[in-house]
Amino acid sequence: MDMVNIKINGMDYEAPKGITVLEAARLANVEIPTLCFLKDINEIGACRICIVEVSEKRGDAMGPKRMIASCVYPISDGMHIYTNTPKVIESRKKTLELILSNHDRKCLSCVRSGNCELQKLCKDMGVEVENTYDGEVTSFELDTSAAHMVRDNNKCILCRRCVAVCSKVQGIGVIGANERGFKTNIACAFEDDLANTSCVSCGQCIAVCPVGALYEKDSTAEIFEAIADESKTVVVQTAPAVRAALGESFGYPIGTDVEGKMAAALRRIGFDKVFDTDFGADLTIMEEANEFVDRVKNGGKLPMITSCSPGWIKYCEHYFPDMTENLSTCKSPMQMFGATVKTYYAEKIGVKPEDIVVVAVMPCTAKKFEIGRDDQNAAGVPDVDYSITTRELARMIERSGIKFSELPDEKFDDPLGISTGAGVIFGATGGVMEAALRTAVETLTGEELKSLEFSEVRGTEGIKEASYDVAGMTVKVAVVSGLANAREVLKKVESGEADYQFIEIMGCPGGCVNGGGQPQQPGWVRNTVDIKALRAKVLYDIDADMPIRKSHENPAIKKVYEEYFGEPGSEKAHHILHTSYVKRGLYK
Amino acid sequence: MAAKTCSIPFKGTAEQETKLREVIASHKDDKGALMPVLQQAQEIYGYLPIEVQTIIATEMDIPLEKVYGVVTFYSQFSLNPKGKYTISVCLGTACYVKGSGDLFDELSAKLGISGGETTPDGKFSLVDCRCIGACGLAPVLTVNDDVYGRLTVDDLDGILEKYSD
Known about the structure:
- The complex is a heterodimer.
- Chain A is an alpha/beta fold.
- Chain A is built from 19 helices and 19 strands.
- The model of chain A has no long low-confidence stretch (mean pLDDT 96).
- The two termini of chain B are 35 Å apart.
- By secondary structure, chain B is of the alpha+beta class.
- Chain B has two domains: 60 residues; 78 residues, Glutaredoxin.
- The longest helix of chain B is centred in the first third of the chain and has 13 residues.
- Classes of the chains: A alpha/beta, B alpha+beta.
- Chains A and B meet through strand 9 of A and helix 3 and helix 4 of B.
């Protein structure tokens, strides 16, 4: 690697040629604050918070000091970089004051209070007066049209992180900058409601928003009401990925497993039963593996594509409507779980399904859309009543006065809290594929697998491929996360360039661990740490320690088939655990 | 919120659409083709309503929002067809200090449209402009090629009446 010599704040360093001033400073352990910058996603040098002074070599002499945006400016040999001169600090402060001049400063009631990047920068840069520049302010109506989120442009600081993640990472681009100058605002085409667009509800925009302009619709008040209502049996289920990230809301390092404390907290909030969506994941594997074998044997539509991720499902319906027949008809684990609670479990405990409230804690915002879909009400009432994000659960824990770090580690309740290692890895990209392979291979070969790790489909890359010999048959699989990647793979399937039999697709990059409902990490963390890899490791570690690691060996699953569904793919299972899709298309 | 689409019904012809599709096809492999396509689309239709932008978005495989973002960024693009009569109010310095801002606001209220828009009957468009070189007559407005000067808001009804045909 070519190295160049630079000085940062008077100290000598060597740094790789071609990197930016911001990266060079980071290598030298010098922090430069950023706001709009998201590595590989939003590198536009727009907000000017990362401003520094540099002076570059001109022949034998040094050129004059200039102000540059360090996130996009490359280093050069002999460059002198000054990150903390009075001029730099004054400039950052002025930028913040100008942002504040057109920002709805209702911080006390803001959903991001205490966790706002703008708030932290103002504090760090010593902004003492919040209305240094008083003048005209823009005013926007809130967009509350979508099932999953609210857009409040009065809080927007026009950093464009949401725009970049929507168009680049997800390949969707339903939000962008409209108008220009003072009138610039982030919105949909023709200022239409988000609900009328091909938004897939993935919530990645919320995950990257530095302020309170984008946030999920909060259902916590309704859930507290339901818990207080004695006529209701309130059952909670938690998705695999939640336990890998909830701790971040309570100061734990990224990648801490808080499953036990989470179960304890849910019980103390007052839920009647604390169950695990991992059970639903095991059920999904039983149905999906059966469906796959059936499609292969009976000439069904291939490749079969997984249907766990509601963001991916809506994307397929909008962007690849002709491929909805490729989708597995299996409901998602969350919906299978809800449907099982309101049919099988309701019968078992002798409670009417309408008196059961199913709450799902998900790393996901698209789940809020999914619970309202057609054909998701096996017992004549919605399978799931409320789907809340990991962030909302953290809010409920705080509001309940529970001291999270002091909680004991507790277990989920029986019987729908019993799960396997296969169920827990659903939360990471490749997990569903691996879980399905564990079951499908043993079913097809009739032999016990020697090794349960399918390492080819592990890891956080957006597109992975593998091929396996199963009972004399070659099965080509692909594992995809992030919707721009999905588009790339599906185009190849459409053109016949790729001939997979089975594809796992997750809407969010890295899978559910990096879902749009997970605790927000600020830009300066996202830019330096691979959050999705750290959270995924939690799930693979749990799997490795589980006594049962194959869905078909889950005793509770065996029992539910014996007592209720019969066998995977039975008529009853079809009625309760499967669903249908809509060909939405793009512009109506 | 409702979508901000043009209230005047779209009257695009099959001929215009064929032309537009030819324009898009001719730019098929060009990077950064959106601007020239939009410019030529506006030449074909006179403006860029949602129907035209949707064809462009679909054919060029660009999100509709991105197309709309570019259209609203550049003042050369219009979301509304030009009316039979374009009323252009000068908001240049001299006219403005003589009260042309009030003229503009009053016209906007009377016609029920904002700047850049056209009345639903397709008759009047309202725009602002900067200095037409008749500062001695400030405040000034023009209706197509007719110039009106030294105006007050009370003169506006009389002017609009002249174009009642």
